[in-house]
Structure formats: C-alpha cells, structure tokens
Amino acid sequence: MSATIVQVELLQVDLPPRVPRSDAIQSFVMQETPMVRIRCDDGAEGTGYAYTIGTGGSSVMALLRDHLAPRLIGRDPAQIEAIWRELLFATHATSVGAITSLALAAIDTALWDWRCRRDGQPLWLAAGGAQPRVPVYTTEGGWLHLDADTLVSEAVAAREAGFRGAKLKVGRARASEDVARLAAVRDAVGDGFELMVDANQCFTAAEAIRRAPHYAELGIAWFEEPLPADDIGGHVRLAASTSVPIAVGESLYSPGQFAEYVRQGACGIVQADVARIGGITPWLKVAHLAEAHNLSICPHFLMELHVSLCAAVPNAAWVEYIPQLDEIAASSVRIEAGHAIAPDAPGLGIEWDWAAIGRRTVARALVS
C-alpha cells in the first residue's frame, strides 16, 4: 500500500553566520532556514529545507503555510515529480522567482528525504550514484571586506587543510585593487591551488570585459556572477571576450532560465543552487542539461545537500565549502584529501539536532 501525507510541520530556524560574510553588493547577516517536515499515515517522515541570507523567510513560510502545504495532505509522497509540477503551476502567478522557488525546494527536499529513507538509500545513490567524492573549495576566507594579508593567510590555511581551491570576492572600486589582492594570494599559494573569483553581479558588461583579462593573467578557474543575472546578452559578450569560464546560477530560478544561458553560450560553468531553483527535482534536470552540453556543474552554497547531488551526477566538478547547518545538525560534511565525501546514511545525509532546532525556531505552523 502507498503512504499518504497526513501532516506537514513548518519551521523557521534563524542561524547567524559564524564569521562576517560580505560581497560587492550585500552582507550575509542571518540565515533564515524554512524547514518542512512531512508525516505520513504509516509513521514515516521526511525533512527538507531552504534558506535566505536575511530577508524573505517569513514570506516563504506564509506561502508554505497558506498555499502549498495544504495541497500535500492526502497525497502519495512517492509522486515527487507530479507534486513538484502541480505546486509549480498552483503558484503560476508568483513563478518564477526566489520566494516561490525556496518554498518549493523545502517541500521537494522533504519528499526526496522521505523516499530515500523509505528505500534505505543515501541521496547520492538514489539520484544517480556517479561519483562518491567530489573536489572541494572554500569561500569562507575570501570575503570582500577582508584585507589582503587576511586573504593570504586564509588561503594558505585552506591549502594546508587540504582544500583544492578557494574563491575570492572581487568588486573593489578599482580593478587594480582586485588584482593586487588576487596576486598576493596567488603568490602565496602557488599555481597548483585553484582560485575562483566572484563579483556577485556588481559589474556592467563593459567593466567586466575590461577586468576579465587582468583576472585571467592570474590563472583563475572561473569568473562568477560578473553581471546582473537578467543581462544574458552581456554575459554572451563577456564569455566571447575571455578565455576564463563564466559561472552563473545562484540567481537563476528555473531550468528554463539555465537553458537560455546554455543555448546562447552565455556561461561555461553552471552553478544551480538546489534551494533557489526549487529543489532536487529541478536541480537534477539542470545538472543533466549541463552534462548534455559538455558543461560542468559547480553548485552554489548548501554544501550539506550539494555534496550528495554532486556525487549523483558525472559532471559535478566542485563542492563549495561554506558551513551552513553546524548549529542544528549532528552531522557534518566529511572531507578527505581535498574531496567532499558523499554521506552513506539513508535520506539527505543530514542528521538533524531537533533539540537545537527547537531552541532556534522563530516561527512554527502545523497543517493537517
């Protein structure tokens, strides 16, 4: 007999970052973490989540509480694709966009967690099982507010800790400032350590085209979010002007948006974010879209989920290290010899600390 969803618990858990995080356009002041916990008539459960970097959490919770969670009651949780598509069309007036995608992701990841637990499989095997370990790079020591000496010490420490690379934020007022910071780090870590740069959409196309050759001289692995995400034409011109791969994705919210970037040759690295695209179901579609076009996927943030998804597909090249759930999870991402190891436990691979979650919950609702 199939299971039936009889109750949905909604939680918002607020988590302050352990270290200050800033880039060219914003500061990451609070991780709002909407969580969805589905319960079925046979006692089985599944837990999913999404995140914001400080705004919109209450809106995600309202969308879940008032419009999406009620549609789950009485449904068979095994019908993940059908549920995701029905919820997408039920929110047609607010799709495609961040709030809706984050709400869909919290539900979709809960359904996948339920399925994997039911089947006794870890997510990385259930979703494809392509590679049990993926190279890992860190972003935690590369924030824009840090001075050059700190960037250097953080990068050297990351190399010594076994990371294969580090991402540095760019977007200082003058190109020379960015270059000086990058050059200091490159001199310190050598050519065998990958460096990525991330502008967080702060440049015009003309300015990005002007700066890209200077970054390229330092052997960077990619130039991330150089322009506003809706400037596809600018990305096309930039990609054609430089040998540096252009990386995009954290501010795209549907497989269709990724398809247009790929179709126009506007990116060389795909960085789908499982929360911002609406869950595991659409993330896998984008990963295989990239694979079909001989592109790597190097997802943004959410390392606790992305380690399993990267292990599921053959074209994932990197996992980004930014600890996100340490305060509310008893598990953590295992790193060995510069690689993130896919967890073997059934489900998403996250062991939730429900007592800690209870202490940090700022909003809660039950739908049945």
List its traits.
368 residues, four-stranded antiparallel β-sheet, Enolase-like, domain 1, alpha/beta, globular
Low-confidence stretches: none
CATH class of the largest domain: Alpha Beta
Question: Which outline best applies?
Answer: globular
CATH architecture of the largest domain: Alpha-Beta Barrel
Quote the distance from N terminus to C terminus: 21 Å
How many helical elements?
Answer: 12
Round the mean pLDDT to the nearest integer and report it.
96
The largest sheet, given as strand count, sense and whether it forms a barrel, is: 10 strands, mixed
The helix/strand series, from N terminus to C terminus, equals EEEEEHHHHEHEHEHEHEHEHEHEEEHE
Estimated helix fraction = 25-40%
Structural class: alpha/beta
Please explain how this structure is put together.
By secondary structure, this protein is α/β, with parallel strands linked by helices. It has two domains: 5-120 and 353-367, 2-Layer Sandwich (Enolase-like, domain 1), CATH 3.30.390; 124-341, TIM Barrel. The chain has helices spanning 57-68, 80-90, 98-119, 123-126, 148-160, 175-189, 205-216, 232-241, 255-263, 280-292, 303-312, 354-360, and strands at 5-15, 21-22, 27-28, 31-40, 45-49, 133-138, 165-169, 194-198, 223-224, 246-248, 269-270, 296-297, 319-321, 334-336, 339-341, 361-367. Strands 6, 7, 8, 9, 10, 11, 12, 13, 14 and 15 form a ten-stranded mixed β-sheet that branches. The protein has a four-stranded antiparallel β-sheet with strand order 5-4-1-16. A two-stranded antiparallel sheet has the order 2-3. β10, α9 (255-263) and β11 (269-270) form a beta-alpha-beta unit. The two termini are 21 Å apart. The relative contact order is 0.16.
